[in-house]
Amino acid sequence: QVQLVESGGGLVQAGGSLRLSCAASGRTISSYAMGWFRQAPGKEREFVAAIRWSVEYYADSLKGRFTISRDNAKNTVYLQMNSLKPEDTAVYYCAVQKAGVLGNSPGEYDYWGQGTEVTVSS
Q1: Distance between CA atoms of 90 and 116, rounded to whole angstroms?
Q2: Are 88 and 36 in contact (CB under 8 A)?
Q3: What are the C-alpha distances in Å from 95 to residues 4, 32, 37, 41, 105?
Q4: Within 10 A of 8 (CB to CB), how many other CB atoms are there?
Q5: pLDDT at 1 exceeding the cut of 90
Q6: Per-residue pLDDT for 27 more than 90?
Q7: Rounded-to-integer distance, Cα 33 and Cα 106, Å
Q8: Is the pLDDT of residue 66 over 90?
Q9: Which residues lie closer than 8 Å to 80 by C-beta, 6 or more apart?
């Protein structure tokens, strides 16, 4: 069992930046794929980014603005979000995939955090 706790969300103006963190406990996550997803009100959960070892994978629409990284020593994954737009407003979730495949579908992930809310004002 893996427990995930996200943090770092908040209110930011358009054009600003935020860094989200996802701290894992219960298991060492170094060999797992880790993903970030987001869900805006009334919309389906959508893929943001994933990482396994040093290989990164991004949603095409977010490439260049968002960066995923991990610190295996801290059992933590990060999402650096720059040039934020109002349409980035959502609850952001991190997830673990034990199989280690860089998937972009929520159904491919085994454990989820509770989410952290990001609001971008115009």
Answers
A1: 9
A2: no
A3: 7, 10, 8, 19, 11
A4: 16
A5: no
A6: no
A7: 13
A8: yes
A9: 17, 19, 66, 67, 68, 69
